[in-house]
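Researcher: For the record, we're logging two predictions in this thread. I'll number them. Prediction 1 follows.
Model: Prediction 1, sequence and structure:
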Amino acid sequence: MKLPKIYNTYFVALIATVGGMLFGFDISSMSAIIGTKQYIAFFDNPHGVKQGAIGSALAAGSVIGSIIAGPISNKYGRRDSIMFACFWWIVGTAVQTAVTNTGMLIAGRVLNGVTVGITSSQVPVYLAEIAKKEKRGSIIVIQQLAIEWGIFFMFFIGYGCSFIAGPASFRTAWAMQFVPCVVLMVGLPFLPRSPRWLAKVDRTDEAIKTLANIQANGDVNDPLVIAEWEEITTVLALERESGGGWQIFFKNGMWRRTMAGVSVQAWQQLSGANVMTYYVVYVFQMANLTGNINLISSGIQYALFIIFTSFIFFYIDKTGRRSLLMYGAIGMAICHFVVGGVLSAGEYVPEGVDGNLNVVIRVRGPKAHTVIAFSYLLIIVYALTLAPVAWVYAAEVWSLETRATGMGLASLGNWVFNFALGLFVPPGFANITWKLFIIFGVLCIGAALQVYFTYPETCGKTIEEIEEMFADGGPRPWHTKPGGSKLDAKIEEVREKHGRNLSVDEKILNVDEKKPTSVEHIA
């Protein structure tokens, strides 16, 4: 029996982004647990490289997921690749729930990471391909919001389970990760396939009908549908003429898009924000917070994350991508420098604060309050800028032929650095202490410089038009501005040229007969 499809883009986004919620669940399934007595006792007080290996196992699996995501998505579709990812999550969560030792915990997190690698790359691709240009940013931001709600829910589930004695404490918390995965698996069959993927695999009739259902309430004669379909198929034909294979990511002007997509994801990690999301309990221990007060204070940070990302949801398609990325990186750099500077005046505790060997520095009084305040401020800036915008920008820069694999490549940049940082941060806290924050501050300045010189503005343009921004001879990034799409003019042209009575067959015929004469603008 063929299930009915729901074409409302916000509903589609709410279901699809549960894949992001899985990522959030896995993040705080550790951050809420690592400071509890039950966890420390059962896993023999893991610290340094051992704790780093546990924390980075998710990212290690996500590297694998990012590599396989593109080929799977290209062959089976964006929606079905997300369904495929769910099965890895079911197995990984089962392994974590039954955990008996550190190796088993790492294995379960690696399996869950494969899911996160696929969903974190293909959910933004799917949303970018179904959303209108005026709403694309806000639609993809729902992915980041889902991640944050997942972090928030799981953190307080972990906090509640911390009152359960023995290993049942963390096993119960980790078992709760089944719930969002089941919700996602039930909802996915009701979502439409991406019309751009359907066009890519030459399912023309289905593609144009899906596009019409998404953009014009099923009216295949709507000028918007005609104009956008012509744009999709014209660009697709040009891309196919330009060849395929891995070399397509680096030849002509395509290297600019590859660099932008991969680097914006890498900078999201190198900004140091995940120090706060993965290891905020450690940072607040440095600020002399202990026990339940530490956990609740950490939970407040996650609430701020949600509140301020929700705020940017309404403005991301008005303010543009470049300014948010650039000024966000500068703001985060300032926060890192302040936290690092204050901690440099702290006392050294070689036996570990409260016996935690990952935390060997502590400040008290006004210094502690400053660390807490600027830790919160850093997350607020991150929630308004790099956290949501990096996913949006990385999903926008690719062409139709390269988007699934390209986004997998971009996510690979994210997860490689996520893995490296997850492994490095615990021993970094123990060995270079406050200097870690200075390093992240300097990296944030580097991110701002690259954004200014190499990232053109993509806001308000169709994902086909964005190709021109990266092409040889395209505008300098610092000269680009939000808006200025040519699609509106093309809609009027279609309305004047064809009228409202053009049939579906005629439109498809007209589009198929529109043969490109040059591939020079394809980057």
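Researcher: Logged. Prediction 2.
Model: Prediction 2, sequence and structure:
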Amino acid sequence: MKEKLKQLELFLKSTNFDRGIRLGVGVAVPFGVMYFLGYFEYALPVAVGAFLNAPGDIPGSNKRKVNAVLISIGLTMLITSIILFSKPFLPLLLLVIIVISFVVSLISVYGFRASLVSFSGLLAMVLAFAAQKETAHEIFVHVALMGVGGLWYLTLSLIFQKIFPKKDQNQLLSDTLHLIGDYLKLRAKLLTKKNKRDGRLNQTFVLQHQINDKHETLRETLLTARKRSGRSRYEEKQLLIFLSSIKIFELIEAKHLDYKTIDGIFGEHKEFLKAFKTLNKVMGNHLIRLSELLIQNDEMPDKEHLLKALSNADDSISNYIDAVKLPQAREGALVLKNLYDYQKQLLQEIKAIRRVMANVQEASKVSLKRQDSSQFLTLQEYRLNVLVQNLSLDSTMFRHSLRLSIAIVLAYLLGFLLDIQNTYWILLTIVVIMRPSYGLTKERSKDRIIGTLIGAGVAVGIVLITQNVVVYSVLALVSLIFAFALIQQNYKSAAALITISIVFVYSLINPDAFEVIQYRVLDTLIGAAIAVVANYTIFPSWEANNLKQVLLNALEMNKKYLLATQELYQDPSTNKLSYNLARKDAFLAISNLNAAFQRLTQDPKSKQNEFQLIYEMVTLNQTMISAIASIGNFIINHRTTPASVEFNLLIQKIANTLQMACDSLDPIQLKKKVSEETGEDAQEKLLGNYQHLSKKRDENIRQGYTELDTETLHALQEAYLISNHMGWLKSLSESLEKATERYRYSIIDKQS
């Protein structure tokens, strides 16, 4: 019960609920004000204007948010005017529907914020069918009042932001820390349980994409919020937590272990891994608790259990050496030592977050230069050529726009020919449900239908209990607030609440509430069916055929990241910024690849061409970026010897192999080759360096020098990590080249 109350408190204090309240106030106030002034007939278009322009109000920089809402206001007013003037002329209306549906949905090529503006435009088109305006004067008044409603909502949003200036950032930071905590716990399970690894690796793909999305939004909100006078203490705190969250995430990524090797080394000694697994779980749970404290006002959790778990992991290394004995235990001990060092770094970042949240004055300051920080922002390209480049059937968004416009026209004609009472409800269902991918459309259709049926059932129960107009009004408003608050978290629940809200709004107009419920359910079923069938049959876009560019980008970013790591090894102090930028780009590229793979898993089984091959390529890319990150992380956090000639040769060999993998997907590029012998020789020499140090250490032990000094330990760690990971990277790059060749033969060549 206590846990449920805590979750309820977190929800009521969340920005999702805050936006629900914002929309509720935005819709309710016009009715109250207009009723008081005696102009109640003008309240509805003002409320509709506020409702239509709420989607663009998402976290981000103030400038982008205001611009998005203003564009949305202009677009919704224009579209409403065009539809209302075209309604008396069916041929013209059909043409207008096609053009508006296609052009407005294509705006989504400009990114997520643009897709929400596009959604507002499509909603405006649908809701215009519900407005009964006969004369030009009535139309202009209606549209003008919608504009007033949009400006009223924008003003309200800015007021809320002024009152709670840092709420969005705190919520984003909380969500990010919670996701990272879940990710750490998931990685703990991967360490010892190999029977469910494939399924859990798929879960890591989802979490990686979600964390990267949060980090991108935080970059926009925190790095663009700098004022000329500098940051406030509170902004400094938020930025410190954000930077620590990035370091933690990248440390986790850097420790993507070669689980097959670990299974081989610790096959009969898995008990020595349990302390490390426990430490991951403890740190994950601690991050989740810290994430809750960013929203709640509560005491900081005790850190003693963190320190105890770290100490147990350290003891486990000694226990392993005592049990297995040197030199047989050396490889396993080095694996455990590297794992311990990584987890100790994670704990340092968690402690840094604790210090910031506890307002410790000695917490470190942020020293990002403006020109440096701006390089970490991913700027959306808004030029016309982006739209022009997508005017092709090869573009997923172009196909979606065509599909959506055809589905909407067919649905409208169906409603017109069958004289369906509220055809726009069918259109509304299509607009809300239909997405570029079949899998997401199908999932939303199912959630929409189930939610509508649940909402209808609840509405029937309430109607049977009471026919009170006041009760209907309150329930309509409250359900709308909660629906908007839940729409991103739980679409099924949001659909149920939206149904309740719509039923009671219409019940205020039409006394026969059961008729409203009946038509609402029927129209939802029709709209959902049209959306799913259209996605499957009209210019279908199957993810297996759309992966080429995403794969190519992931390979190119991995190659750049690899070369940036080579430069970091040469001179860590000079090349750290370029390394960090390459790392960020590589993480975003792999995040996009993971998201594409998740969409593939939602396609029908018959359309998942070469599923195992694509899964292999995604996993290989993911493993490669982690192996590169592991080397980079070691270089940053340890004093290393100068990069050897063999290391540089092997880096070039791997980079060239990745280039050949890119060439398989994009044959326009020039191919570069390096002899296999050179790569093999370099790999052997790197391994020989580690073996030489190991033999030297064995000789010292035989002579009685059992104490291991820090310099020798670091030299052994470096030699083992570099030789092991470079061989691993070489193998991964060769496997990627072969896999991309197979992908080209089996999918790309068949398309051309």
